[in-house]
Amino acid sequence: MMFQYVKLLLYSIFLSCKVYAIPLEDSGDALNLFGLEGLSENYAIGATFIEGDIAVPLKAGRAVYIRSPKWPNGIVPFDIHASYTNDQKSVIRGAMSEIMKSTNNCIRFVERNSSTSVWLRIIPSRGCWSYMGRAKSSGPQDLSLQPTGCVYHQVALHELMHALGFIHEQTRPDRNQYVRIQTENIQSGNEHNFNIFPSTSVSTLNRPYDYGSIMHYRSDAFSSNGLPTIKVITDTDKDWESKMGRGMNLSDQDVEKLKAYYSCS
Ligand SMILES: *[C@@H]1O[C@H](CO)[C@@H](O)[C@H](O)[C@H]1NC(C)=O
Ligand SMILES: *[C@@H]1O[C@H](CO)[C@@H](O)[C@H](O)[C@H]1NC(C)=O
Ligand SMILES: [Zn+2]
């Protein structure tokens, strides 16, 4: 394996913990992680999902989590499926452009060509999901943005961040100091979406906990009854409860973490 292991990754890397599948049947017009309607349950051939929208390749009938390598030199070749409308393509390109601009082009999305070996293939599949980091050693790596429900600036940003190697903010090892998980409000069977990753698997890059991260869940993620599944612990941060997971852009810390992870100057 020539993968450069993501030692520092902002919350990513390989999970030695258990990996769970979510049911793959359609869930009708269920709200997704982003509180957006009109999409199907995430679905990918040959993969399962952890934490709702992170695809994990299936191997030998089991899900294994490959340590997520970075994209060399911060260059992410991509193509966007031809069946998206021009407006949808602009939304997707707009999210790429925010990442490029905010990192001063240290991270760059470039159109793939016939000699590109690995690229991000943005497809209108079922659901909004991505693999973590540069997950393949050759060929296309899928990132799904279902036309109804996923083609929004903030959703594209979030999935692109997974593809760059970042996991959900509220799974970082120190999260219990900042948020309290209200287990009694979680849809039964979805408790695993609130796992914490150990510091041996992920890194905070020594950045403070960020309620405003584009990678943070909403406070009502996977709620069975509309009540919060994630509460803010500290009184001074209470305002975040209604705001977290609802941002439209990268937070300042998201940008700092991207730059740190990709060794940008
Ligand atoms: C923030 O997101 C909006 C779309 O929701 C986009 O139009 C705007 O350009 C973004 N801001 C930055 C600084 O990229
Ligand atoms: C093809 O794409 C790669 C990135 O995958 C890039 O480095 C290379 O310069 C491109 N080649 C041409 C001829 O544009
Ligand atoms: Zn996600």
Automatic annotation (TrEMBL):
<keyword id="KW-0645">Protease</keyword>
<keyword id="KW-0482">Metalloprotease</keyword>
<keyword id="KW-0862">Zinc</keyword>
<feature type="active site">
    <location>
        <position position="159"/>
    </location>
</feature>
<protein>
    <recommendedName>
        <fullName>Metalloendopeptidase</fullName>
        <ecNumber>3.4.24.-</ecNumber>
    </recommendedName>
</protein>
<feature type="signal peptide">
    <location>
        <begin position="1"/>
        <end position="21"/>
    </location>
</feature>
<dbReference type="GO" id="GO:0006508">
    <property type="term" value="P:proteolysis"/>
</dbReference>
<feature type="binding site">
    <location>
        <position position="162"/>
    </location>
    <ligand>
        <name>Zn(2+)</name>
    </ligand>
</feature>
<keyword id="KW-1015">Disulfide bond</keyword>
<dbReference type="InterPro" id="IPR024079">
    <property type="entry name" value="MetalloPept_cat_dom_sf"/>
</dbReference>
<dbReference type="Pfam" id="PF01400">
    <property type="entry name" value="Astacin"/>
</dbReference>
<dbReference type="InterPro" id="IPR034035">
    <property type="entry name" value="Astacin-like_dom"/>
</dbReference>
<dbReference type="GO" id="GO:0004222">
    <property type="term" value="F:metalloendopeptidase activity"/>
</dbReference>
<feature type="binding site">
    <location>
        <position position="168"/>
    </location>
    <ligand>
        <name>Zn(2+)</name>
    </ligand>
</feature>
<dbReference type="InterPro" id="IPR006026">
    <property type="entry name" value="Peptidase_Metallo"/>
</dbReference>
<dbReference type="InterPro" id="IPR001506">
    <property type="entry name" value="Peptidase_M12A"/>
</dbReference>
<keyword id="KW-0732">Signal</keyword>
<keyword id="KW-0479">Metal-binding</keyword>
<keyword id="KW-0378">Hydrolase</keyword>
<feature type="binding site">
    <location>
        <position position="158"/>
    </location>
    <ligand>
        <name>Zn(2+)</name>
    </ligand>
</feature>
<feature type="disulfide bond">
    <location>
        <begin position="128"/>
        <end position="150"/>
    </location>
</feature>
<feature type="domain" description="Peptidase M12A">
    <location>
        <begin position="62"/>
        <end position="265"/>
    </location>
</feature>
<dbReference type="GO" id="GO:0008270">
    <property type="term" value="F:zinc ion binding"/>
</dbReference>
